[in-house]
Amino acid sequence: MPKLIIDNREVTVPEGTNVLEAAQALDIVIPHFCYHEALGAVGSCRLCAMNFLEGPVEGLQMACMIKAEDGMVVSTVDEEAVELRSHVIEWAMTNHPHDCPVCDEGGECQLQDMTVAGGHSRRRFHGPKQTYINQELGPFIQQEKNRCITCYRCIRTYRDYCGGTDFGTFGSRNRICFGRFQDGRLESPFSGNLVDACPTGVFTNKVFRFKSRVWDLQEAPSICPHCSLGCSTIPGGRYRELQRVKPGINRETNGFFICDRGRFGYDHVNHPERPRQARLDGQQATVDAALTAAAQRVRQMVEQHGPDSVAFVGSARTSLEAGALLAEWAKRTGSPHLLFETHRERDRAARILVDRLGDRACSLAELQQSDLLLLIGTDLIAEGPMAALAVRQAVRAGAQVVVIDPRPIDLPCSCTHLPVGPERLPVFLDTLVTRKTEALTDAERNPLQALLEQLDAAKTPALLGGADLLGSRGISRLLDAAVALDNNERPVRVVGLLGGANSYGGALLTRSPRDFDTLVDDIQEGAIKALVCLESDPYRECFDPARAQAALGRLELLVSFDCTPNLAAQRADIFLPSRPVAEMAGSFINNEGRLQAFEQVIEPGISIRETSSGDHPPREFSLETPGALPRPAWQMLAQVLDLPGDLPAIRQQIATADERFDALTSLTADETGPRITDPVVLPDTAPDELPQCVPGETLPLLPVQGFAGSDWLAHLSAPLQPLEGEPTIWLHCDLAVRLGLAEQDQARLTTPLGHCHVTVRTSARMADNLVLVPHLWGTALEGLVPGGRHIDCRLEKEVNL
Amino acid sequence: MGLWRDIKGTLQPFWVTLGYLFKKPATIQYPEEKRTPPPRYRARIVLTRDPDGNERCVACHLCSAACPVDCISMQAAETEDGRRYAAWFRINFTRCIFCGFCAEACPTMAIQMTPDYEICDRDPLNLLHEKQDLLIDGCGKDEEYNFYRHSGIGVVNPRGGNADETPPVDPKALVP
Asked: In sequence order, what are the residues at sequence separation of 6 or more whose Cβ sits closer than 8 angstroms to the Cβ of residue B19?
């Protein structure tokens, strides 16, 4: 631990820290551009100059390039250093345009801060300024090249950190600029990070363009609800409208960045069809009246037909507090039916993962330290994009990546991909456990043998699997494989990608050994007469939507708490408007068991963009906010249960009732969060077999998740619509040739669910004899839910007349 | 001593008052008579136009950030040619304290203080001035400044076409 003196103050820092970081540890503000905690230092901006007075290095040096060492005496306020810094920032400003009033970076412009910190206030250079022509970079990023100060942070973020390839440095000498070779959408799913990386306004958020100044935003630390990784975010809203999301800093999960789904998927909060009014038997009602009726009717149902006649179903986006209160409600009624996932395989997979994960849990920060990553049955870009970014960082540090998956996986890093059919996945998993390669084909044997050797040699290996494709049986075998591959020196870590933000928490709370499909049987037979849905959609987000919809029609009572216009909300006898993550405080448990709290960002209400008439906001005064009726689900459930309705009291109550959640009482939204592991109630039904796609007369069709369009909340977000695209299927090139289809052909897809028109995409990097279809809400592909067995389909080329 | 002081204190005001009977009164008969305040007097706030007749306000929010009583609110928007402007702009004159911070903060000379001090109304709602109430037809105190002719992002002139700019560079040029 080197000890050094900066500005006459002594500081001890960990080995390997640079002097700039050491100065920051003392809260000394030194201007810098090229240094970033995640990107490292390159010493190119020349701004962090300090004078090294004594020690191994002497003279004027760039602090970010010098490792802190014992005996160093450094001055940041030395005249020479201050003068150099002021000149450097003056040079950086020579071509910077005079457009701060119309620049969206205003308020969080690092260039502005550094210019002031560097002591430059008056322009002395009177020559003309250099200009550039801007590029059109798609729906997310707005470019203004004139503002560039060539710090290279965009390149280091987009290319080096995020692995994008369609962005680069152009020009020579003083004509350097950064962009794409041609106009077009930035293809990386992490493109939004350019906005945060750019210290000035070259890359700004196009969706947020001119909506607000950042100092006017209401902001609070929150958690991204779009996948199970639980990335930290900071949403910002103004005038009752959620307007943007920027990454929060959690060094254990997302670090400093987030994916575009998390960044631009916030708009479900402002969805024009969002239900904001409580309903009772089709009539508008007050929330209080609807809650009283819900409690009363559930009680009546239990009195008349016994506790078994009521079922309670939460979802993966239910906060832990609301989930625990739903469990309490189920307990008080005596009902044994309490689930937090309506998709039976996702439910089982989550419960098995939670039950067995234990110390094998691996945060994204730990994943970056792995030296061998085996991704089996998971498409990280769709199921947990930030995990793909963590995998890339591991590869940059020298790790090997092996992918076994039928999909044409696009990881932002180099990998060895074995595109095997889903029916081969169990064989591979078994081989990892038993090490017997007899069941493998000749083509598969060598790569797997090599993989086993790599796994034995690896010091920090990690296995990653997705709940959708592997199912509970696959997740279970993945954990078996981890046990089999363990040796004395090192454990094998496991990352399971689950269905939603609180899948893990839901699995911990689930008390019923049954899964949703067996409940559907009971509903069909009339044994279950009432269903309480907490932010879940059993009509569509289940294994077999057609069967569920037929059965759910027989319910005598459907109560739904939701903040989205889903089918359960539309068809409920009693509907209660709840709030999305940005409008309430609560907590989620992510896929590694990390309990994280989020705070309320904005109050609910219809934005004044919608309520304003003509060219100004309303001129009437009213004490009531339009559309402000939604309440947090935990508050409404507390009212049903006659408990105090404030969050600290609810958390206290949950922690008292269940010691696993002790940490809830002291949890704050800015901490990394403790891990919770505990055995859970496992499903008693036999798990599904892994998808067996045996080619026959018909083609096997396998629904999978896509980056945008498969997540319900992201689908409701208008900024992400351009990414959803048309209904698409993926075929292996050879299969396409056999079927007489070519890339971008229009085809007619026939499944037992009906017909639909799809665009054909082909790839040589995927499994043969298989049709992959990315799930897409709001289209004919909506009923093809990922996470199930394959279904049979036929494909015909459509002839354009 | 005390007695003399009291007598003087009683009579002197009468003497002073008597003297004023023969002087011209300082009071003016407002509202029939009106005084002209100096041009830099800080009263009614207006939004001015640039010499080309376009709105100067770019909705940068600096006035609302500077405002100590939070009486200014606005929403920025963009025209097709890239000009940032205020979709709506509201000053709540029931709150305004005429401190002039907004005019001082304005980087485009859009918001200016005028000597028109007669702002009162029985209905507070009439003192809630929208953009159309604030916008005047002239340049106000600055006859020349047009922000977009200096901003360097190409709205009034094509990119690189302003006086203090070079034409756009060709990043693919190979000339050393």
From this structure: none
B63: domain CATH number is: 3.30.70.3270
3-state SS, residue A117: helix
Query: A411 in the Ramachandran plot: left (φ > 0), alpha (ψ -120 to 50) or beta?
Result: beta
Q: Topology of domain A3-76, per CATH?
A: Ubiquitin-like (UB roll) (3.10.20)
Q: Closest CB to A171: pick one of B88, B166, B171.
A: B171
Q: Which residues of A135-153 are buried (b: 16+ CB within 10 A; e: fewer)?
A: bebbbbbbbbbbbbbbbbb
CA A759 to chain centre: 27
Q: Which of B61, B79, B162 to mutate to test the interface with A (most CBs of A within 10 A)?
A: B61
Asked if the model's pLDDT at residue A786 lies above 70, the reply is yes
Q: Which residues of B touch A211 (CB under 8 A)?
A: 76
Q: What is the 3-state secondary structure (H, E, C) of A393-434?
A: HHHHCCCEEEEECCCCCCCCCCCEEECCCHHHHHHHHHHHHH
Q: ipTM of this predicted complex?
A: 0.89
Q: Count up the domains in chain B and report the number.
A: 1
Are the C-beta atoms of B139 and B114 separated by less than 8 Å? no
**Chain A residues within 8 A of B59 when measuring between CB atoms:** 210
For residue B152, give the nearest of A99, A210, A609 by CB distance. A99
**Which tokens hold the place of A41?**
């230092």
Does B76 reach chain A within 8 Å, measured CB to CB?
A: yes
- Residue of A155, A188, A118, A201 lying closest to A34 (CA atoms): A155
Q: Is B112 exposed, middle or buried (0-12, 13-18, 19+ CB in 10 A)?
A: buried
**Exposure letters A425-442 (e unless 16+ CB within 10 A, then b):** bbbbbbbbeeeeeeebee
Given an 8 Å threshold on Cβ–Cβ distance, is A210 in contact with B165?
no
pLDDT for A691 equals 54
> In terms of CA atoms, which chain A residue is nearest residue B163?
A128
CB A677 within 8 A of CB A593: yes
Smallest CA–CA distance, residue A726 to chain B, in Å, is 28
Global pTM reads 0.93
Residues 35-64 of B with CB under 8 A from A: 58-62, 64
Q: Is the pLDDT of residue A692 over 70?
A: no
Per-domain boundaries in chain A: 3-76, 128-270, 278-343+505-612+627-666, 353-498, 699-797
Q: Check if the beta carbon of residue A377 is closer than 8 Å to that of residue A465.
A: yes
Domain that holds residue B123: 29-144
Q: Would you say residue A640 has pLDDT above 80?
A: yes
Output the pLDDT for position A799.
76
Alpha-carbon gap, residue A557 to A574, rounded angstroms: 8
What is the mean pLDDT of the segment spanning A296-307?
95
A278-343+505-612+627-666 adopts what CATH topology?
Rossmann fold (3.40.50)
pLDDT at res. A503: 95
Residue B9: inside a domain, yes or no?
Answer: no
A window 600-619, beta carbon within 8 A of B: 609, 612, 615-617, 619
The answer to whether residue B132 neighbours chain A at the CB level (below 8 Å) is yes
Identity of the amino acid at A514: R
Q: How many CA atoms lie within 13 A of A239 on its CB side?
A: 17
A99 to chain B: closest CA residue: B151
Q: Which of residues 191-250 of A touch B (CB under 8 A)?
A: 209-211, 213, 215-216, 239
CATH class of the domain whose range is A699-797: mainly beta
How high is the mean pLDDT of chain A? Answer: 92
Whether residue A99 lies within 8 A of chain B, CB to CB, comes out as: yes
